[in-house]
Amino acid sequence: MEQLIQQIINGISLGSIYALIALGYTMVYGIIKLINFAHGDIYMLGAYIGYFCMTTLKLGFLPSLIAAMLICTLIGMAVEKIAYKPLRNATRIAVLITAIGVSLFIEYGTMFFVGAGVRTYPEITGLLAKRFQFGSMVVSMQQIMIVATTIVLMTILQIIVRKTRIGKAMRAVSLDKDAAQLMGINVNTTISFTFALGSALAGAAGILVGVYYNSINPLMGVMPGLKAFVAAVLGGIGIIPGAMIGGYLIGIVEVFVSGYGSSMYREAVVFAILILILIVKPAGILGKNIREKV
Amino acid sequence: MKKIALLLTAVIVSIAVFAGCTPSAGNSDTIKIGVNYELSGDVATYGQSSVHGIELAIEEINAAGGINGKQIELVKYDNKSQEAEATTLTTKLMTNDKVLAVMGPATSGAFKATIPVAQQHKIPVASGSATADDVTVDANGVKEYAFRICFSDSYQGTGMANYALNNLNKTRAVVILDSSSDYGKGLAANFVSTFEAGGGVVVAQEAYVEGDTDFNSIITKIKGEDFDVMFIPGYYEEVGLIIKQAREQGIDVPILGADGFDSPDLIKLAGASALNEIYFSNHYSSLDQDPVVQDFIKAFEKKYDRQPDAFNALGYDLARFIVDGIRRAEKLDGESVKEALAATTEFNGVTGNFSVDENHNAVKALVVIELKDGVQHSSERLSMD
């Protein structure tokens, strides 16, 4: 029983990371129907920015988190402006291929500047290094911090999307871009803002992973990026609460497969879920089946 | 223009003249040895470290008069960490440069690729760090012109199983292996068979793949088992994280591993406080008080201004091993050097005393290093007779 609870705790911390990345995928898809494959690499950049803040600038965790989120916001907006905006009226496949190109560019560009090797975060001391023991269960302060940060960020996101003017604009654009434009909404600003929000969350995920696992490298965004994509599809791509549910589900499934089955099948199961969901319910858990008008 | 034409003629004439000469290196004033290492590319650190060791050794030997008055000349090429390039360079060293022996490459795959060339030209190749099990011998028997001076991967697995049983008195082990590399699988298989043959029980065996970062679920799973020692055959990138996460979850049993643990990054990944009761096998330890080792460390620090690592030590030994073979060779040709190398006994190296067995492997002791708070606390030589 204790082992089960411990595994669920492990799964929730892992799932939080997936959920944070999946949110960016889903928001961008919701608004311009693009699967932004460069999103996992923004997450990687977040980890590196956090690393330089904490080692070179000797900042604490919170200022580093904010710095990583801010810089990732700018990078996300720049990527949209440079790579995707000129293709606004191009075919979807052209934009998708561009996204893959951007992804490779960021990965190997980073490798050029910082080297291909693994880097390690400075050792965490003080409050964040604390651990709580319940019987044989151990919950680390870092796990609590990951889950707490994720929940706080998701709440802020919900408030922005539900309660603010720009959030209303986002929802309007995702519903019908042309109609929104006719109503006087600046579509370009709205899309740019969506990229900004998604990239900030990915940046946060990056630094959280850096602190938690202590190991970062230029290709670290590839796998979590793909898994977060699966999470977004599982929850229903384009639907924000779906990304959260999908993220946590994938995290817990992964932990259970390696905890009760074999860790060798972990990745296979995640991608089997993707195939299954696409066959059985392509709209995802929270998705409604909308018949496409011809 | 005229000058260039003249130069060209001179070159062509000299080639024509020298082409008629006997290829034996014995006629010149120097003895040429080839150096074929990974100086750039994926595993450039291995190659560069090995070459640093080799250059130090040759410098010392030349300063002491070389081989019977002849100076040694190294012909050094970069194989860019590519197997095909390594093979081409070996051919080039043997046919163009007429070397007497070739050192390198550092990794097993690249080294194996060069062996057919050596067999064909009857010139020995030797590696300091090709540890895969089947490097010098396969189903067709021993590869006559291939040598190595390090132990094999599986030897480390066997050695650490004996260490767990006899030195640490542990009987219940958990194995977490890197299933994406032959290294991890080979070590694990040998550890398990030796450990069980010696009366131990392997209570659980888990696997991961290169690049994984989250091991909490595996660790939570094994935490329910009753065990007193862990064996993690893998490389430091993942091992560091496994140790960190295991210690965080309260697993405090001794953790055993092999030379994949040997990196200054291990302490950065795992944190000093997690690195207690860690034992791993390695080729050499700077704590070894043997005068050969201490002299080497002093000389190395003087030349390069840093502490030598295992690859430096292996490179140093490799160069001395080759020179020792050339000294004892009856004639200065590939075949005689091969005979002399194969007859090496009781070679006194920085990485231990060794003899070459019938399979051209070095028979030597493992060095087991204990970490305390992340630093090397003690080391002992573990011979297996």
In short:
Chain A has 294 residues and is mainly alpha-helical. Chain A has helices at 2-32, 39-55, 61-84, 92-114, 141-163, 165-175, 177-182, 187-213, 222-235, 240-260, 266-280, and strands at 131-134, 137-140.
Task: Give a description of the structure.
The complex is a heterodimer of chains A (294) and B (385). Chain A has 294 residues and is mainly alpha-helical. Chain A contains 11 helices and 2 strands, in the order ααααββααααααα. Chain A has a two-stranded antiparallel ribbon. In chain A, strand 1 and strand 2 (137-140) form a beta hairpin. Chain A is globular and about 60 Å long. In chain A, 50% of the residues are buried. The model of chain A has no long low-confidence stretch (mean pLDDT 91). By secondary structure, chain B is of the alpha/beta class. Chain B has 2 domains: 30-151 and 289-365, 3-Layer(aba) Sandwich (Rossmann fold); 154-282, Response regulator (Rossmann fold). In chain B, 43% of the residues lie in helices and 21% in strands. Chain B has 12 helices and 17 strands. In chain B, the strands form 4 sheets. A 7-stranded mixed sheet of chain B has the order 9-8-10-11-12-16-17, covered by helices on one side. In chain B, strands 2-1-3-4-7 form a 5-stranded parallel sheet, with helices on both faces. In chain B, strands 13-14-15 form a 3-stranded antiparallel sheet, with helices on one face. In chain B, strand 16 and strand 17 (375-382) form a beta hairpin. Chain B is elongated. Chain B starts with a helix and ends with a strand. Mean pLDDT of chain B is 89; it is low at 20-26. Chain A binds chain B through residues 3, 6-7, 10-11, 13-14, 118, 120, 123, 131, 133, 136, 138, 140, 209, 213-215, 219-220, 223, 254-256, 258-260, 262-264, and chain B through 179, 206-209, 211, 213-214, 216-218, 220-221, 223-224, 237, 240-241, 244, 248-250, 265, 268-269, 271-272.
